[in-house]
Every structure is written in structure tokens, then in C-alpha cells.
Amino acid sequence: MSITLKNIVDDVKNLASKFQVTDESRLNNDWLPLKINEVRGQLIVKQYGDTDIIDPAWLTDLSAVQFHKVNISDDVNVSWCNDCPVSKAYIPQVINLPTKSPNQDLGIQMIISLCGKNNYSYRSLAQWRLIPSSHPYSKYPIYSRINTALYVNRNVEQLRVVGILADPSDGYYIQSEPIASGSIVSGTSYIVKFGSVTYNSATYSANDTFTGTSWTTYTGSGKVYLEDQAVAYRDTYPYPVSADMARQITLEILSKEFQVEKGLIVDTRNDSKDDAQKS
To answer: CA–CA separation, 110 vs 17, rounded Å?
Structure first.
């Protein structure tokens, strides 16, 4: 079972109130998620500094990000070429991990074309502007980033971006699993794959789309998927942390924000590391 933001919020509330959460609780429902995201960011930076490993659990998919063409008249950062193909987009804040390489942007883990053929590599704007148009590097997809602004050396309208977001709710949950018969939702658009299905007395072949009505079931050999699989993030969707980091977040907030001594927090895990700390 995946860990959700709601799980962590409920853990903090229950432990801080000693399992006596009431409607009159002073715990702010808006503050807690913000604090959880803040502590998550601190722990990610610390863990990466200790291990030099990026946990895939930290990543969030931004789905298809909208880009637009820019030049020097639109953006002072594009000052080296008025006719070069440059597109720009804004993304949510990412967690910047420390790196010694000038050719690494660890906050962004992937920028690819929607078809998956072109993978964009990072170069700083200072390096990018020095690449001659005749140089082989100019033929490869390149991107650069200034805080939340992304630049790419192509005229594109959309690219898929995956990164370590400071606030995971700024991303999307990719719901790519087939939709079971009986789970069709009225007003939602679906696409048929790998065969045909019959829904509400109409037959749909592969790649056909239909919109759900009050009828919730379908029959046939095909598979039904959401037409738009990028779903806005909810606190009941998987939260981008490991199980151990979720536990560390809870402990960090309880011990520092609520002044609960770690020795008073129930430890449900039996491991040698904790035993050594207790002895």
C-alpha cells in the first residue's frame, strides 16, 4: 500500500494529540501539508548529500508542459541569437540538489518529447550560448533552467518533464492502469485499446473514444483507459517519499514543532539502528 500525504498528516495529528483528535483541534489543516513538504525537502537534500543517490520515490511527473517560442525581444536571457529556435516554459519550484558538475541539474530528472524520441540534456545558458551553430552539440536537444524558467533549443509546444518538486501537489498522478467495467464515471472521456468494447449499446474499436454516462459497465475484449491519464494530485494519491522518509518526517515534525521527545513517540519498527540509539 502506497504512503499518501493524508497518511502522514493523520499520523502527526494522532501522535501530537495522543490519539484524541477532535473538531476543536488547533492543528491547522493548511499548515501541516506545507510543513510536511518543507521537511521532506530538507530530508531529501540531506539523504542525497549522504548517499549521492536519487531515490526514484522522490520524483513527480509534470506531464505535458506547455512551451512557447521566445527571442531577445521577449526575454533578455535569450541574448545570443535572434533567429535561433528557443522555447520557454515555467514549471513549479523544484528541490535543487548540490552537485559539483556544471552540466547537471539534479532537480530535473527528465525532459523528453511526448513521443519519447528526444531526450534533453542540461547545459547552462552560459555554455549554451557559446556553442557554434556548426558544432555537433547544437544538433542535440539541450535545455537550461533559471529557477522556474526552462529553455530548450527547439521550437516545441509541449514536453514531458519529471523532477523533484518542492510541492508534489503541483504535479500530476499518472493513472495509466485500465479502467475496470463498473467503474465508468459520467462525464469522463475514455479511450479503447487492444480490441473492441461495447458500452451503452455502442461498439468502440481500438483508439476510439467515448464519454461516460450513467451507465457504468462495458463488455468486450478491449481495454478501457482514461483519455487524459494525467490526474490532478490529491492527498490520497501516493506521496513521493519512501516509507522510511515518511516516518522521519513524522518524527521531525513532532520533535521540533510540537516538542515531543523522541523517546515518547511509539516506535513500531524493530531494527538494530534504533536499538543502538536506545542503549
So the answer is: 41
Residue 156 half-sphere exposure, CB side, CA atoms within 13 Å?
24
With b for 16 or more beta-carbon neighbours within 10 A and e for fewer, the 142-162 pattern comes to bbbbeeeebbbbbebeebbbb
Concatenating the DSSP letter of every residue in 153-176 gives: SS--SEEEEEE-BSSGGGSEEE--
Separation between Cα atoms, residue 121 and residue 99, nearest integer Å = 16
Residue type, 207: N
Distance CA 103, CA 78 (A): 19
Residue with grid cell 556544471, as numbered in its chain: 102
Q: Residue written as cell 551553430?
A: 133
> What number of residues does the chain have?
279
pLDDT digits (tens, 9 = 90+) for 231-254: 788 888 889 999 999 999 999 998
| Pairing assessment for the beta strands 68-69 and 142-146 based on DSSP bridges | unpaired
What CA–CA distance (Å, rounded) separates 55 from 245? 11
Of 177-181, 189-193, 272-276, minimum mean pLDDT range: 272-276
Residue 273 has pLDDT above 80, yes or no: no
Whole-model pTM: value is: 0.76
Answer whether 53's CB lies under 8 Å from 46's CB. no
Taking the C-alpha atoms of residue 191 and residue 87, their distance in angstroms, rounded to an integer, is 31
Which of the 8 DSSP states describes residue 120? P
Compute the mean pLDDT over every residue in the chain, rounded to the nearest whole number.
Answer: 85
Q: What are phi and psi of 126, to 5 degrees?
A: -60, -40
Instruction: Say which DSSP state 14 is in.
Output: H
195-236 residue pLDDT tens: 999 998 899 999 999 999 888 999 999 999 988 877 788 888
What phi-psi label fits residue 52: left (phi over 0), alpha (psi between -120 and 50 degrees) or beta? left
Could you tell me the end-to-end alpha-carbon distance of the chain, in angstroms, rounded to an integer? 32
